[in-house]
Every structure is written in structure tokens, then in C-alpha cells.
Design brief:
single chain, alpha/beta, TIM Barrel, eight-stranded parallel beta barrel, 17 helices, 17 strands, 37% helix, 14% strand, globular
Length: 508
């Protein structure tokens, strides 16, 4: 059997002509000469190299379409009926409302959170409500790489950021609702770093934290972006971007003059972070006022996972987020999203022996967050239990953004008097339909009545995660989320037993 989809994808609106598909190639078993090429091979014949990437990019997000052979569904959640941990064994006290959900972390400057959730890097779609909702819920969130490219008023001087006013608006989307929990973090890839984005953000806008990006599950390499013409290629190169082919190459200039110039592409450089560079760089940023520092890593080779954790420990990094295959992106090679890297559950399992090894060697480990395909509270519970004691946080990215965008749309329709059919039974106004709005009034007063429905939606979605997680904790008589461990999981398949054994052996 094959775990990969057939050569038809939502990424580019392709489909196979026949229901009979070869499991290995993904092609129709019977390929005819009169087919207009509706599958991925057909669109490749038309678009060539550009078909490596989704054609349906833009105001959306995409994620792996591969049905991985093992995931967190291979575990059920255990339950207990005697006693209580983290709380007195008293029926009046052992309630879901007394489950301790706080998840503080930090090496130098502690970060308080209301729950063990982080919203990973994003700077697309409804970012204002994504970050605002995070602040309302009391969790941290990350501004995605390349944010400077979104600012029409960006000014550069000698290859460094001189003016980046849009960043202030992004930071304020969190700060407006900040109630002392979580923080907003600016992610920097190697390009951002070279342009002095971190220094500018800290000194000019008081950005509290920087995340250095090593990798992302859906985007193991940086994407290639087509440029419309020769002039655009020249402008891109002038900004310091890698452009292929080089528009200033004499041979290319000659072809351009003859009307035979090839396609031009821009390319963001691959990270080449080293400990010799990062540690003094991080120290310098701390001297400028940076409070916290983060790393973002994906499911690369286990040697690389270990190297990143060693580097993080040496640099006193506060948190490393590990992003497993199945996660999403706004723009990434189609097949890369499906076919590379460790799936999240396998990445988590691979990290356990590495963490134990470093602990035994005397390293102080940062907080570890897992992300990549999580959306509901049962998945959060399982990942926290499987990764205990090292994994302390779970990232909810695409799901939280879906909450922001869908709630924003709901609000628009409700105010227009066109209540979505599936919501009519709950009411006809924002106040009637958004059931957690009273909780926001309890936190912010009447100001909450003016909050955007998108931000309310993110808060409400995370409130659901919190409530559901409390139920599962209470089910196991554990009244502190920090008490979760592998005994709270029931393996359902041989693969699940193997993964559990892998993580348990690491702790023996």
C-alpha cells in the first residue's frame, strides 16, 4: 500500500481522471493519449518548474496531504478512579476547575502562561486576531519570518533595516490585550538576521523576544519565488536577495537585449547558524534589551536535533519548538510538504533519548514545544504525556489561524444579518453566538464588547482546548498538567507500543 495521495491535490486543483490509481506512482493505471492532463504530471507539463509549488497559494494555508502510517490516534487516553495527584483527594476540591494549567518557563526572564500552548510562527491571513487572541488567552505567539517583506514603508540603509513601522502595528496587536501572560516573539531567519531585523525590533519597538529559525516541517528549504521580468530581477538583487540566474551576468544581459532572457527566480538563503556566531550574538541582543530567546527546529536528522539542543543549552535559550511533518505553511514545495522529515510523533520519540543523554551529561535543557498537525485537546494531552518530562508545550498554528479566520467571517455574516445556517440554533447576534464573550468581559470589562470576532474566536478556541485538557487530566486524577506522563497513554497498535518503548527506554 502507499501512504501518499494520488497525483491529484488541493494545492493545485489537480485530479486523476480514473478511480483506478497505481499505488506507487500515483498515476491512473490506464493513461490515455486524449487526456488533457488534469493530474500533477499534466500541470507539470504546462508549468514546468513552477509546479513544484502550490498554484493555489495566496490567501490560504496548506499542509501535508500524506496519510502517515502512525500518529497520536494510535494511543488512547488512560483513566483512573482512585486518589488524586496535585490536589487533595476531596470531592469538593478535585474538580476540573482546580486542575493547574499554568506553564511557566524561561532561563533568565520567566514567562508566565495560562496553559501549555504556544501559537507558532505566522504572518499571513488574519494575523491581527491570531496575536490578539493569544494575548487574551494568555499564551505566547510568534511573528513569522520575512515580516519585513510585508511592510510597504520598509526602508533599508547599507543592507540593514532603517525603518520598519509595520512591526509596531503587529506588536501592538498583542500588547493591546496583554494581561501579563505569554509574550509576542519575532522570528528571524538567516536573511532577517543579516538585515539587522532583531536589533531594529529590540531597539526601536521594544520587541521582547526573538526566535531564530533553523527549520520548519513543511518547508525544509526556503522556497524559490518566480520574478515577473528582468527589471524585477535587478531590483531583487539590489535588495540583497539571491537571484538566479544573475541578471547582471554579461551573458544574461546579452540574452535580455536579444529578447531571449530566461525565467528569473529569487531564493532565500539556507540557515548556516553556528554556536560561535549565535552565542555572542544572543548575548549582544540581551544587552540591547531582549528578554527571551527561542529556536525553531524541524524533523531533520537526529544528529542535527541533538546539535540544536546542545547549542540551545549553551546559549541559555528559553524554548525550542520542534515542528514535525504534517505541519503547514503558506508556501512550500508540494511534495516536500508530503514526503520529508520526521512525523510529529516520531520526532517527539526521537527527541526523548537525546534529551535524556544531554541531561545525564549535565546540560540544562530549554523548555521544549512540539508542533505539527495538532488541533484538539486529546492530541495535546497525548503529546504532553508522551514527551514527559521534557516536552512541556504544544504548538497550535493552523488550527488557531482557522479559528481566527472563521470567527472573523462569522462576525461579518452575523452583522450583515446572514447568520450561518449551522449557527442559527445558538442565536442571531454576536453576543448570543459567541458563548465565551462573558468570560472576556470578566477579564477586560465592557471593552470586550468591541473586540473583533476573530480575536474572540481564537480566545474561545483556546478556551475549548483548556477545558477539554482539564477533563482528561481529571480523568487520570492528575490535577496539574505537569504531572502527565506515559502511564496516561494506552497503545493501540504495534507501532504505538514501539514508540512508547522507545521513549521509556530513554528514561531508564
Amino acid at each position: 500500500m502507499s501512504y501518499s495521495p494520488a497525483l491529484g491535490s488541493a494545492f493545485n486543483d489537480t485530479q486523476t481522471r480514473s478511480q483506478h490509481v497505481n499505488s506507487q506512482s500515483g498515476m491512473c493505471s490506464f493513461c490515455t493519449a486524449d487526456c488533457p492532463g488534469t493530474c500533477e504530471i499534466g500541470i507539470s507539463a504546462a508549468l514546468g518548474a513552477r509546479s513544484v509549488y502550490p498554484t493555489n497559494t495566496g490567501n490560504n494555508q496548506v499542509a501535508s496531504e500524506k496519510n502517515y502510517p502512525v500518529d497520536y490516534s494510535h494511543f488512547n487516553i488512560n483513566g483512573r478512579v482512585f486518589g488524586a495527584s496535585g490536589c487533595e483527594a476531596d470531592m469538593e476540591k478535585a474538580t476540573i476547575f482546580n486542575v493547574k494549567m499554568s506553564s511557566d518557563f524561561g532561563t533568565i526572564n520567566p514567562v508566565k502562561q495560562t496553559m501549555p500552548i504556544i501559537l507558532p510562527a505566522l504572518i499571513k491571513l488574519n494575523w491581527k486576531d491570531y496575536f490578539g487572541g493569544a494575548a487574551m488567552a494568555g499564551v505566547s505567539c510568534v511573528i513569522g519570518e520575512g515580516a519585513i517583506d510585508k511592510d510597504p514603508d520598509l526602508a533599508m540603509e547599507n543592507g540593514k533595516v532603517a525603518e520598519f513601522p509595520w512591526l509596531g502595528k503587529v506588536l501592538d496587536s498583542f500588547r493591546r490585550y496583554d494581561r501579563g501572560y505569554g509574550q509576542i516573539i519575532l522570528q528571524c531567519n538567516i536573511e532577517d538576521d543579516a538585515k539587522g531585523v532583531a536589533e531594529y525590533a529590540i531597539q526601536k519597538h521594544g520587541a521582547p523576544a526573538i526566535e531564530f529559525k533553523f527549520g520548519q516541517s513543511a518547508k525544509g528549504t526556503q522556497p524559490v519565488v518566480p520574478l515577473p521580468d528582468y527589471e524585477a530581477a535587478l531590483k531583487a538583487k539590489a535588495k540583497g536577495v539571491v537571484v538566479y540566474p544573475d541578471p547582471e551576468d554579461p551573458a544574461i544581459k546579452e540574452k535580455q537585449a536579444d529578447g531571449c532572457a530566461p525565467n528569473f527566480y529569487s531564493y532565500a538563503r539556507l540557515p548556516m547558524w553556528t554556536e560561535d556566531y549565535l552565542i555572542p550574538h544572543i548575548d549582544a541582543l540581551r544587552d540591547m534589551g531582549m528578554e527571551n530567546v527561542y529556536f525553531k527546529m524541524a524533523g531533520y536528522d537526529p544528529q542535527d536535533l541533538e546539535a540544536v539542543l546542545r547549542m540551545a543549552s549553551a546559549a541559555r535559550v528559553d524554548m525550542v519548538t520542534f515542528d514535525g511533518a504534517g505541519g503547514g505553511s503558506g508556501y512550500s514545495p508540494c511534495r516536500m510538504m508530503n514526503e520529508w522529515g520526521l512525523p510529529t510523533i516520531m520526532l517527539e520519540a526521537a527527541l526523548m533519548p537525546i534529551c535524556e543523554k544531554l541531561k545525564e551529561e549535565g546540560f540544562t535543557l530549554p523548555a521544549i514545544a512540539m508542533t505539527g498537525g495538532f488541533s484538539m485537546e486529546d492530541q495535546v494531552f497525548k503529546a504532553l504525556a508522551l514527551g514527559a518530562p521534557f516536552v512541556t508545550h504544544i504548538g497550535l498554528c493552523r488550527a488557531a489561524m482557522a479559528a481566527a479566520t472563521s470567527a472573523e467571517k462569522m462576525g461579518e455574516m452575523i452583522r450583515a444579518g446572514n447568520v450561518p445556517a449551522h449557527l442559527k440554533k445558538f442565536g442571531s447576534t454576536v453576543d448570543e453566538i459567541f458563548k465565551d464573550l462573558p468570560d472576556l468581559r470578566g477579564l477586560y470589562g465592557r471593552e470586550a464588547n468591541s473586540f473583533s470576532t476573530g480575536a474572540i474566536g481564537v480566545y474561545s478556541y483556546l478556551n475549548r482546548i483548556d477545558r477539554g485538557l482539564r477533563h482528561f487530566c481529571a480523568l487520570n486524577r492528575k490535577f496539574d498538567v505537569k504531572l502527565l506522563d506515559k502511564t496516561d497513554l494506552i497503545p493501540l497498535t504495534v507501532d504505538a507500543y514501539d514508540i512508547l518503548a522507545m521513549t521509556e527506554d530513554a528514561l531508564l
